[in-house]
TrEMBL record:
Domain SprT-like, chain residue ranges per copy: 5-153
Domain of life per record: Bacteria
One matching Pfam family: SprT-like
UniProt-listed Gene3D superfamilies: Metalloproteases ('zincins'), catalytic domain (3.30.2010.10)
SMART domains from the UniProt entry: SprT
Single Gene Ontology BP annotation: response to stress
Protein name: SprT-like domain-containing protein
Amino acid sequence: MKNLDELFNQAKSICVSLNIPISNNISIKYNGRIRKCWGYCRLQNNQYEIDIMRLLGEDDTISSDTVISIILHELLHTCLDCMNHGKVWKSYKKLIENNYDYKIYTKCNAKDLHIKPRYIVKCRKCGNKQKYVTRPRNVKYICMNCGSTKMKCIHKDVNGKKLIWKN
């Protein structure tokens, strides 16, 4: 597992070196329940809480620079008038990108971050495949190609492929 405090301090020092006015009241942690975003920032009781998807810390194929880029994105939300992706947020984003070798995305997918999908939902009738980074829930999937509901989910890792569920 990547040391989140160490990565957070690196990201924080980048903001401080560029005089970006981030908050001093920030807590950060990995969150195993996040499924649809890489991280998020929220303000509660005058304290900013940053949650980062646990997968980013566990997967050795994901670089520390990728995690720092996501932390930088969330840190910019702690600046005054930056809880959205407006002009002020974008100006700080450009400042970091022009001075450091980090790409900060407003919205991004796994391909942008060079994260390989680990799960494949495959139609058992026509063979059509959908790829996912996080484990898809065992719900009623319908093939976009043929309309079949006969699907299976496969997990790919270094040890090979493993069937997760089938319906």
